[in-house]
Amino acid sequence: MNFAINYSPTAAELVRSGDISLDLFKCPARPELIEEVQAEFPLYVHFPLRVGLGHGDATDKSGHPPDWSQIEALLRQTGTSFVNVHLNQETENFPRIPATTSDPGHIEFLTECALRDLQPLVERYGAERVIVENVSFWPGETLAPVVQPNLIRQVVEETGCGFLLDVSHARIAAHALEVEAWDYIQALPLNRTGEIHITGLQTADTPVLSKLRTGGLAEADIAQLAGQKIGHVPLTDQDWSFFAEVMALVRRGECGRPQVVTFEFGGSGSRWAALMDREALARQAPRLYALVKAEDRV
Questions:
Q1: Can you give the pTM of this predicted structure?
Q2: Cα 136 from Cα 133, distance rounded (Å)
Q3: How far is residue 147 CA from its own chain's centroid?
């Protein structure tokens, strides 16, 4: 397995100095940034694609058609293995469906929307190259069915796509659904896991919000995050224990064949960049690297 970290200038400096090691950086689909990073480091691209609206294809974060020619170019340029998509359905896109619905008709409809959007990607790239990520949960904005393991599993299994396990997203969703996080994760389509994301979890309290505000996050977003669990922060002891259990699943062959495990700490030009902690990254990245690489030796 490869070990990756969100690209940031801080992470790049630590790699240059030899303080941390990685196999590649995870970069957003920004051609100018990719060209800059690729001149010095190996990388893969994480695309801002979403499925679930029922438009009959993936969209960008704003719900508009993606620039497929640019995506094709970036795949060729970087050798990125997967076309990742975020399985996401929000209340604003489905105003007639209650956010907490458990109506079987609603769930069937939302599942059909996701399947309809994924089919063109499967035809375009092949199911083996498409990977579906579980999303986080925002109260009042995320439709509860889209974070239910049954819906996620049905979408992945019916399309034959791979699964991108975002551990922090799963823990946040489990908390919102009032179920045990470990039970939630084990109900996901783990056998199809091709990639894993890991971060710490932290409550967005006043100090965290102050950092985000200093980083330029809009006040509307600040208000949304206040008091919520967020990722993209250093790991606590509880986070380490949880991630160790996930890697134990990988070691036992119960979590697919992930090609890469990514520490999603910091970033470049994202809302989370302001949370970067150089000392924490320098301390935690080597420990994560060792844990991931230890699985390769089993």
A1: 0.94
A2: 10
A3: 13
Q: Give me the tens of pLDDT residue by residue for the chain, a chain 298 residues long.
A: 999 999 999 999 999 999 999 999 999 999 999 999 999 999 999 999 999 999 999 999 888 999 999 999 999 999 999 999 999 999 999 999 999 999 999 999 999 999 999 999 999 999 999 999 999 998 888 999 999 999 999 999 999 999 999 999 999 999 989 999 999 999 999 999 999 999 999 888 888 888 888 777 788 878 878 888 888 889 999 999 999 999 999 999 999 989 999 999 977 766 777 778 899 999 999 999 999 998 554 4
CB contact set of 181 (below 8 Å; sequence gap of 6+): 170, 171, 174, 175, 242
Phi-psi group of 227: left, alpha or beta (phi > 0 → left; psi -120 to 50 → alpha; rest → beta): left
Find the length of the chain. 298
